[in-house]
Amino acid sequence: MNVTINGKVCEAKQGQTILEVSIANGIYIPTLCHMKGLPPIGACRICLVEVEGAPNLMAACAAPVTEGMNVYTNTKRVLETRKFVVEMLVSCLSLIHISEPTRPY
Ligand code: FES
Known about the structure:
Blueprint: E1 2-5, E2 8-11, H1 18-24, E3 48-51, E4 58-59, E5 70-72, H2 76-99
Parallel strand pairs: 1-5
Antiparallel strand pairs: 1-2, 3-4, 3-5
This protein binds FE2/S2 (inorganic) cluster (FES).
């Protein structure tokens, strides 16, 4: 099947994810929780992409491709959402750090 990513027509196989097709075609999508060879958990949301016709952004590591899918990895909406996701992840780390009990050394 054919999938278009950022205007580039890419060949894809049934069952591949957007991330797998992107990697195979040299298109970078950032990831954090994705581990090659393990089932996707779609937890971090760093890999969000925009799919034409879809109301919400999709996690590229978990979303399977479909025939004729039109994907954008670097729109303003995608980049702003990824930035927000990173800010939320960092703020969670900060809270964990703050809530750790002080250790006497
Ligand atoms: S890499 Fe974490 S949700 Fe896709």
